[in-house]
Amino acid sequence: MFPLGKNNHVDRVSSKLAKTKVLLQNRTLAKYVPTTRPYSPKQLLAMLRQHGMVYVKPDTGSLGIGVVRVDRTKRGYRYQSGTRTYTFKTFRAMRLSLQKKISGRCYLVQKGIHVLRRQGRPFDFRIMIQKNPSRRWECTGTAGRVAHPSKIVSNGSQGGTIYSAAALMNPIAGKRRTAQLQRSMNRIALATAAQFGRTYPAMNELGLDLAVDRKLKPWILEVNTRPDPCPFTKLNNTAIIRKIVRYAKAYGRRYCLTCSKAKKAN
Asked: How many CB atoms lie under 10 A from the CB of residue 135?
């Protein structure tokens, strides 16, 4: 299931569980990784009992497609898929319904993080990390992503709205704490890139999805090894996307920058 040793020619990894294994090899990064397990009914029940809320995700896939939030409630269980919420009195009834949605694919269960919200909508951050022309890892941009009002995922492709990180965090944490948090997030991003670079030396870019909980602790939600630059086209600071494109050209990648689904903050 997991890659072992160095993969000198691999520049893309699809399995979220494999990428989680890479992160967990680093003690510092492991502190920011929510508990993640291969999906099974037994594992789902155990994690719901421990955490109360979890996310069930396809092991391979992108754009937030197929992600389900599952909650243990006072009256039973519920899960949200897309814009619809389903409620159940028993775990068995919920599991059988959920199984119909996810059958035929490998899934994982991840501890749910109660992330910060803007006007009731959850948000997280995408940090772009790239090899610069000197072949050193560099954080080239951070975009805040606010979920569509009816959805649980923040992806722009799912109708999310793109903000600068400061626009989302300053009202909550203040300018000084926000600046500290952004530096911390960049350190996590660079450490992630270094860790992946040791395992996969051919990699030139990563997109790190980070969320911040109510205690202002950052969490690594996912590492994307073929990141979509679309969120950065919606930022007012156009120098960010220009740098991302310039660095990508230097290592041979070309992007499609037609991004119609993500919304730009007013």
From this structure: 9
